[in-house]
Design a protein that fits this description.
Elements: H1 10-13, H2 20-27, H3 30-104, E1 123-131, E2 137-145
Length: 167
């Protein structure tokens, strides 16, 4: 016994003017698919916003670190230059001194070899004893500034033109 309402062939059972959308609606609940797609899109937007915010935050942290490192580099460069100058100063002084003594025959002056000269100050004649031989001594008068502070110079007034040497 065959049921008369049911066709035997399934292809023959679907009408030829049926739309694919109608078939999709019958097979699946369309509203739930649209909701699922919208939920996925919303989740993607939220995820992308969070990742963008994390990227911007990371950029700001990296930029601050870079600026701190640049400041540190500038400080280190200044210190390096200072140390190079200090090294050159300390290494050059002994070389100059040894060359001056060895090649030029220079020496450091003693207090007797120093004379302070100031413009506009009267000079004082101070007797200096020079010995040519052991028996013979002569008084020689050399000009010396009145502001000479060497220990062997006598104290003199600025108006005086000559001062007797105390013996």
């Amino acid at each position: 016994m065959a049921i008369a309402d049911k066709p035997t062939n399934r292809r023959a059972a679907t009408p030829s003017n049926t739309d694919v959308g109608d078939l999709f609606v019958r097979k699946f609940n369309v509203l739930s698919i649209y909701v699922a797609i919208l939920v996925l899109l919303a989740a993607g937007i939220v995820w992308s916003g969070i990742k963008t915010a994390e990227g911007v935050q990371q950029y700001h942290q990296d930029y601050k670190t870079l600026q701190d490192m640049k400041k540190q580099e500038r400080k280190l460069q200044v210190e390096h230059q200072r140390l190079l100058i200090e090294q050159q100063t300390f290494s050059a002084t002994p070389q100059i001194a040894s060359r001056a003594v060895a090649e030029l025959g220079m020496f450091s002056p003693t207090l007797k070899d120093k004379m302070i000269i100031q413009p506009g100050v009267a000079t004082v004649q101070v007797p200096v004893i020079e010995a040519d031989s052991a028996e013979e001594t002569a008084d020689v008068i050399e000009p010396r500034a009145s502001t000479d502070l060497s220990p062997d110079a006598p104290i003199a007034n600025a108006d005086a033109t000559a001062v007797e040497a105390g013996q």
